[in-house]
């Protein structure tokens, strides 16, 4: 914890939350770094229901594998430029020149397997529009569970669920890759399919999808 956070924040008793100088309770991971705090306060867990938005988040979750989310968040502007705003139609058409360009771009994560997966997943996203269950956004949201966790501490937050496992398997059948059940659970958290904000957090229940 930074000196500033130590001076202005206190841990909410038994909840794994830090109450900041603004009086708002957040989990430790979102309590100090301004970038993570803003992401937590304004974006994480809010419903995303458009195809491009879901594709972007699915892609970034795949790039995050083995890295910190802060690293990906700091690189997100560069990712958006490099991948043409995560337009699935454009990314699906990438060829060897684009692959070389991306692997030379120090602004993003230059992992060949993850870059290739993003292109492959873009093509799968385009193909999914013909699916009876709808486009990528509708498909992912169809795996929303009947209930959501109610964690009091970060240790109580699940990393997988039956629904994330089912979503992982379903997407793999549709041609997607880098969509393991843990990655898909993180995606479900980010998109608002589940609410894993800790009980007592100022963001708990803020998505409108789940009651607090």
TrEMBL record:
Q: What is this protein called?
A: DNA-3-methyladenine glycosylase I
Annotated GO biological process: base-excision repair
> Do you know which InterPro entries this protein is assigned to?
Adenine_glyco, DNA-3mA_glycosylase, DNA_glycosylase
Swiss-Prot/TrEMBL keywords? Metal-binding, Zinc
The record's annotation in PANTHER family points to: DNA-3-METHYLADENINE GLYCOSYLASE 1, DNA-3-METHYLADENINE GLYCOSYLASE I
Q: Which GO terms describe its molecular function?
A: DNA-3-methyladenine glycosylase activity; metal ion binding
The domain of life is: Bacteria
Gene3D superfamilies (alphabetical): Hypothetical protein, domain 2
Name of a matching Pfam family: Adenine_glyco
Q: Which positions does UniProt annotate for Zn(2+) binding?
A: 197
């Amino acid at each position: 914890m930074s000196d500033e956070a130590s001076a202005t924040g206190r841990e909410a008793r038994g909840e794994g939350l830090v109450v900041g100088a603004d009086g708002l309770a957040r989990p430790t991971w979102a309590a100090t770094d301004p970038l993570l705090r803003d992401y937590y306060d304004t974006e994480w867990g809010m419903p995303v229901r458009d195809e491009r938005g879901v594709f972007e988040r699915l892609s970034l979750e795949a790039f995050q594998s083995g890295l910190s989310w802060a690293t990906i968040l700091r690189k997100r502007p560069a990712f958006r430029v490099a991948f043409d705003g995560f337009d699935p139609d454009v990314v699906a058409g990438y060829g060897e020149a684009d692959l070389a360009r991306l692997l030379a771009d120090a602004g993003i994560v230059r992992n060949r397997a993850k870059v290739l997966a993003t292109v492959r997943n873009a093509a799968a996203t385009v193909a999914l529009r013909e699916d009876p269950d709808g486009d990528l956004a509708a498909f992912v949201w169809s795996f929303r569970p009947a209930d959501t966790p109610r964690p009091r501490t970060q240790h109580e937050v699940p990393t997988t669920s039956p629904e994330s496992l089912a979503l992982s398997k379903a997407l793999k059948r549709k041609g997607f890759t880098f969509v393991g059940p843990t990655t898909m659970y993180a995606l479900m958290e980010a998109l608002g399919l589940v609410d894993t904000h800790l009980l007592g957090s100022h963001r708990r229940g803020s998505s409108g999808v789940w009651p607090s």
